[in-house]
Write a structure and sequence with these properties.
The structure is a single chain. The protein has helices at 46-52, 70-75, 115-124, 157-169, 178-192, 194-200, and strands spanning 24-34, 53-60, 80-83, 90-93, 107-112, 133-137. By secondary structure, the protein is an alpha/beta fold. The longest helix has 15 residues, at 178-192. The protein is globular and about 45 Å long.
Length: 205
């Protein structure tokens, strides 16, 4: 028998996130470059973002050179920022967000995928290298306890969006995105059981 799906959050009723969803206005248009494999992840964070913040546009694929909306990004590259730790990335520190409030950033691009797949998208799309890059610094440790990361200091796409918007506005309002994120994690830990969670996801000091 198929599971009953919530019409609001499009998740199974047993793990409905509707009571935890928020409604936020981003300081610029969010463009998510999503690796196709992320669409199959039950615990992905982009679906939460789509429910909680706007404007947001999700492009799915690996090579986006033929995307119909690409030209709009390339016409004014200085109005774009891509969150990616390249050698020329600016550091966006939550300890010093004041300078960003005056920045004329119209598009913020975030790559959604594992670090290996994010690097693949980066290398398959040379046009990305023509856009100014930024990387988040002095940010809280990830709360994405149910997915492991191969990169030190890595955060989920939702967390990256939350911290970047906080940097761009100087407001911690965007940490409200953590409400549905944390609820999803807590539900999954409860489902798997504390013993399994501690055995497979908690690092031993």
């Amino acid at each position: 028998m198929p599971r009953e799906i919530c019409e609001g959050c499009q998740r199974p009723q047993a793990v409905c996130l509707c009571p935890h969803l928020v409604s936020l206005k981003a300081p610029c248009e969010l463009v998510i470059l999503q690796h196709p494999s992320e669409q199959k992840q039950a615990l992905a964070t982009v679906p939460i973002l789509k429910q909680c913040i706007s404007p947001i546009d999700v492009w799915v694929g690996e090579d986006f050179s033929g995307h119909p909306k690409l030209q709009a990004l390339l016409e004014k590259p200085q109005t774009c920022r891509i969150l990616f730790p390249s050698e020329e990335s600016d550091n966006w520190s939550l300890d010093d967000p004041a300078l960003a409030v005056q920045a004329n950033i119209q598009y913020l691009i975030i790559i959604d995928g594992t670090w290996r797949k994010a690097k693949r998208i980066w290398h398959m799309n040379p046009w990305l290298h023509e856009l100014p890059c930024a990387q988040l610094t002095d940010i809280p440790k990830t709360q994405y306890q149910i997915r492991s990361s191969s990169i030190e200091g890595g955060v989920s796409t939702l967390e990256a969006v939350s911290f970047a918007c906080e940097y761009l506005t100087g407001s911690n309002t965007f940490r409200d995105l953590m409400k549905p994120f944390k609820a999803m994690i807590d539900m999954q830990i409860k489902k798997m059981g504390q013993e399994v969670f501690l055995a497979h996801y908690q690092k031993q000091d």
